[in-house]
Structure formats: structure tokens, C-alpha cells
Design brief:
single chain; 581 residues; alpha/beta; five-stranded parallel beta sheet; 20 helices; 47% helix; globular
Length: 581
């Protein structure tokens, strides 16, 4: 049951009648006609912008359309009143019986309430984390991992066919540095002093890798030149790091469907195939780039390179794909990797990048638009930095990592549920402060506690009802009759529950899972407000002493709230609490 969708359908049906009667011209596009919560709850239960968006194309005054539309809508038994406000907005009040119907439907439908067919099975690839396999993941990866995982769950809930993917950056020079760093730890395992010179990875996490190399090779690699061991140790250390990263992700509750190796693109013809695709489209040429604006780099020299015509697709300049010495640029394998996604049949691509990749957005979107000839869309979400604090003081660096706070540090300090929820309390492109003291405090100011506490309160009501010998199963609650004369606090809660299916679709369209976290906080606030009012007004308590029938109606509303909280937390990857300790 999606009340907003149902009432919007009633608005569209009324508009169709107005077209048939000649009150509106034919051929109008109703796509932007919306039914949404009113800005002020005093104005009604829902509001529509229909007259405002249709006035210009219909060549009619907005209030003229609104008044005619309102007269049609009140004929619908579900709509109690339709009032025209301002220049032409329509405020709707719904029949009270709809709230009882909604509550029963939510309890009966359970976790399926709010699920949508918006995506219609469109195949989506969500690529996130994709950290270099050179060490444990840091706090920046944590936020990207949580965002990407929640986004994938949100899209799945909204009816998309989602694949979660991790791109292993194992094709660049950084894995050579990893191999050299691991070799020094191998020497250490053999009883020699490691030479952790500048440019190598200094973290203690490579000590067990060095010990594992010794267990496999003994002392055979000691004093051997680099060309003897580099290739083998590169693969050995990379796999060891990926095992560590998989463990890091598991501690956060993240599980990928696909791990795709950049290295697999080299020597297999896949980079060449992607570039040939662009060449066949007339988008590859030999040319010389203009010098960068502003101060020229000291090593700048004009040279002919192989370039991609990315400016044809909105980029600022054409981009090199091959250097003058014949080597691929960093951009070339990324083009090939996204070409594999297109060839694998994905209709929509989403990349979750760190904020430092902002300059990469236009060229990558240009490449996907060119390769797919506009069929496949790429959305790139940039994740801003996380600042860590403890009691208001900056959190110290991790000795184990050498230079940064690891994902494991965060999860071990705060827990996976708290970490995940708090990482979504800001939009992805806004900086985030993470204070370990504040995210663990039990107060209204801590959103994860506040939402968990709301769910736990409902669970406590159900336990007390069971102790009284009352049947408060979902089957029973789905038959409960909610009063048509609801208190304002009860009405506020049921209206917020009604918003859930719409919220899912709005968040999925925008690729913004933080909207779910915001909504859950508001929903929890309505539940707590109703609960607190019950301290002074016994008629508002969920448990009506000695009255099982009256209790079942009120508990049905609480249970509907818990169903939505549980579904929302599942999207965020957070376990709902049944009791608070």
C-alpha cells in the first residue's frame, strides 16, 4: 500500500477527465505532477502541485485549474476535502478510515511494506570502496563502504537488479611498492634488520605477510635481486592484503558480489578492445594538448599523444589514453573496466569515489557515454572526508597502519551498527565529524540510539502484552481497528509511516541513502513523542490496562512503526534493537 502513489493516481485520473471534458488541452505531460507531504501539517494530509506545473503548458491560470481539479477530487471517497491555497496548490485531507487501513496493511505486509517496482529490474552496478590493495582500509574507506552498501540495498528495495562490485587496483606501481615493503618484512622474519626506506609502506600489518613469505620460501629469497622475487611477491602480498580487506569489510557487514582485478585487463586485449571501440566511433586521435591554464609545470613539454575526444561529451579537455612513449595512461584501463561493465549488460553504473577524485568525474562520464552511445548512465558519488574525535579531541593515528586510522579501529571502538548509521547522518558530499563519545551516548542527540530505542520500546510493549496473556501476533494486529478519532500524536505517527514508500522512491531516484537515516530519526521522534504523552494521558498508552481490544488497536500502530524502522535499518545495514541495555 502506497498512499501517496494511490492518491497521485486519483489526481491523474481527475486530470484525464478534465482533458476529456475540454477543461484542459490534450497532450499534457503529467510526469511532474506530484503528491507529497504538505510543508505545514496544519494544511492537510497531502498536497499536490498539479495546477502549478500544468498552468503554463495548458495556457490556464493555476487557480482556475486547481479549483476545477479540487471539485473532481472530493468526489473520491478517500478524499475528505481538497482546498486551494496560494497561487494554486491543492491541500488534501484524507478519510480517517485510510489510517486504520494503512496500519493493518503495514502489519500484514511486514518487511515488504515500502518495497517498490520503481527500478523494474534495471541492472545496476554499484562500485564502491575499491581501495588499493596495499594495506588495511582507513576511515575514509569506511564511509564509502557504508554509503555504497546502503545505496545498493536501497536500490534493491526499490526494485533494481543490483550488483555490488569492488575494483582491485592491482595494476599500478603501488603493488610494486607493496612487494618491496613485504620483502623487507620477509628479511625481518629471517632475523635481519628491515630497511623501511622512504616510499615504502611502514605499517606493522606487513609483519605477518613477511612471516608468511618466509614460511613459503624459507631463506631462498634473501640477497636475491629484485627481478627474481618481485612478480611472485607482488601477487603474494596483494592476495594477503585482499584477505585483510575482505576481513575489514566483513567486520562492517559488507559483502561484495564481485571483486574485479585491474591487472586482468592487462595483456588480455581488453584495453585495446575498449580503445578500438572508441576509435571506431571516431573518438580517438593523435594530437597535442594545450598547456594547462595558470602556472606551467616545470616538466611541461608539448608532445603528441593518443587522445580521447571527451570534450564531445561535456569534459573540459580531451584526455590522453596513451603516452608519447606508448604506455597506457591511468585513464585507459579505467575506460576498459567500464567497457566491461557495459558489455556485462548493466543499464546503470554508479561509482563511489573519494572526494579527491572530483577531477575524474567528467572524463569518466564522457567515456561511458561514448562507449555506450548514450545508452548507459554513469552516476559518480563523491564521499567527503571524515574527521575523527574522542571527547572533542582529534583521534590519534593507528600504530598498526603506520599513518592513518583504520576501519577496524573505528568498528572496534564504536561497533558496526553505530558506525554504519552515523556514517549516513550527513549527505555523502558533506564533511562528517565522528566523535566516539557522542556516537555512543544514550540521548536524543545520538540518532542511532534514538532510532534503536524506538524499536526497543515497541518490542517491550509486545513483551508486556504477551506477559498479560494477550495475543498480539501480527495476524491478530492486522485485524485491529484503529480509531477514526486519532489524537494528533497518533495521527502524526501514522502519517509518517505512510510516507515510507514515497521516501524509498525519492531516495532511490536521487541515489541518496542518507534520506533513509533522516526519515528514521523523524519516525522515531513521532513514536517517542506519542510514548511520552502517554505518561500524562493514559488513553494514549499502547497498553490499555484490562482492555485487550483497545490495546490491540494501539499496539498495531506501534508495531507498524517498528516494521518500518526495521526495514529502514536493514537498508542501512543496522540490526534493530529489541531491548536497550
Amino acid at each position: 500500500m502506497n498512499l501517496f502513489s494511490d492518491i497521485r493516481a486519483a489526481v491523474i485520473a481527475a486530470l484525464d477527465v478534465m482533458v476529456a471534458e475540454g477543461a484542459l488541452p490534450e497532450g499534457l505531460d503529467f510526469a511532474n505532477v506530484a503528491v507529497e507531504p504538505p510543508r505545514d501539517a496544519l494544511h492537510g494530509d497531502m498536497a499536490s502541485n498539479a495546477a502549478m506545473v500544468l498552468a503554463k503548458p495548458a495556457n490556464r491560470k493555476p487557480r482556475e485549474i486547481a479549483e476545477a481539479l479540487a471539485a473532481k477530487l472530493v468526489a473520491d471517497a478517500r478524499i475528505l476535502s481538497a482546498d486551494v491555497a496560494g497561487p494554486g496548490f491543492i491541500n488534501l485531507r484524507l478519510a480517517p478510515t485510510l489510517w486504520s487501513d494503512l496500519t493493518r496493511n503495514v502489519v500484514q505486509t511486514g518487511a515488504a511494506y515500502g518495497r517498490s517496482d520503481l527500478g523494474q529490474g534495471v541492472k545496476v552496478n554499484v562500485e564502491y570502496v575499491s581501495a588499493n590493495p596495499t594495506g588495511p582500509m582507513h576511515v575514509g574507506h569506511t564511509r564509502g563502504a557504508v554509503f555504497g552498501d546502503a545505496l545498493a540495498s536501497l536500490l534493491d528495495f526499490a526494485g533494481y537488479d543490483v550488483t555490488r562490485e569492488y575494483y582491485i587496483n592491482d595494476g599500478g606501481a603501488q603493488v610494486d611498492v607493496l612487494a618491496r615493503s613485504a620483502y623487507e618484512r620477509y628479511r625481518e622474519a629471517c632475523g635481519l634488520e628491515p630497511e623501511i626506506r622512504e616510499g615504502l609502506y611502514p605499517g606493522d600489518y606487513l609483519i605477518p605477510v613477511g612471516e608468511a613469505i618466509k614460511a613459503k620460501y624459507g631463506r631462498d629469497l634473501l640477497d636475491k635481486p629484485e627481478e627474481v622475487w618481485l612478480v611472485d611477491l607482488r601477487s603474494f602480498a596483494t592476495e594477503a592484503m585482499m584477505e585483510m580487506i575482505r576481513g575489514d569489510l566483513a567486520s562492517l557487514g559488507v559483502k561484495m558480489d564481485v571483486f574485479y582485478s585491474e591487472k586482468s585487463l592487462y595483456g588480455t586485449g581488453q584495453i585495446e578492445a575498449a580503445l578500438k571501440r572508441l576509435q571506431d566511433l571516431g573518438l580517438i586521435y593523435e594530437g597535442v594538448l594545450e598547456p594547462p591554464k595558470g602556472k606551467l609545470p616545470e616538466d611541461w613539454e608539448e608532445r603528441e599523444q593518443t587522445l580521447f575526444r571527451s570534450t564531445q561529451f561535456g569534459d573540459d579537455v580531451d584526455r590522453p589514453v596513451k603516452k608519447s612513449d606508448g604506455a597506457w595512461t591511468y585513464f585507459a584501463p579505467d575506460i576498459a573496466y567500464h567497457w566491461t561493465k557495459i558489455e556485462r549488460g548493466f543499464d546503470l553504473l554508479i561509482d563511489v569515489f573519494g572526494a579527491d577524485h572530483g577531477g575524474y568525474v567528467k572524463r569518466m562520464k564522457a567515456a561511458v557515454a561514448a562507449l555506450s552511445e548514450g545508452r548507459v548512465t554513469l552516476d559518480i558519488k563523491l564521499i567527503q572526508l571524515v574527521k575523527l574525535f574522542k571527547n572533542g579531541e582529534p583521534f590519534k593515528m593507528s600504530k598498526r597502519a603506520g599513518t592513518f586510522v583504520t576501519l577496524r579501529d573505528v568498528v572496534e571502538q564504536a561497533g558496526a551498527d553505530v558506525t554504519r548509521f552515523h556514517m549516513l547522518t550527513r549527505k555523502n558530499d558533506a564533511p562528517l565529524d565522528f566523535d566516539f563519545a557522542k556516537v555512543l551516548e544514550q540521548s536524543k542527540d545520538n540518532p542511532v540510539f534514538y532510532v534503536q530505542y524506538a524499536h526497543a520500546r515497541v518490542c517491550s510493549v509486545l513483551r508486556k502484552a504477551a506477559e498479560a496473556g494477550w495475543d498480539m501476533s501480527d495476524a491478530r494486529l492486522a485485524k485491529a481497528e484503529l480509531s477514526t478519532d486519532l489524537h494528533e500524536a497518533e495521527l502524526s505517527l501514522v502519517k509518517k509511516i505512510a510516507e515510507w514508500p514515497r521516501l524509498v522512491e525519492v531516495a532511490a531516484r536521487a541515489n541518496e541513502p542518507h534520506r533513509v537515516a533522516f526519515y528514521l530519526y523523524d519516525l522515531a521522534s513521532d513514536l517517542h513523542s506519542l510514548w511520552n504523552r502517554g505518561h500524562d494521558d493514559a488513553s494514549l498508552r499502547f497498553l490499555q490496562e484490562g482492555d485487550e481490544a483497545a490495546s490491540s488497536a494501539k499496539i498495531a500502530l506501534a508495531r507498524a512503526c517498528a516494521v518500518v524502522i526495521s526495514s529502514g535499518l536493514a537498508i542501512l545495514g543496522v540490526t534493530p534493537a529489541e531491548e536497550m541495555r
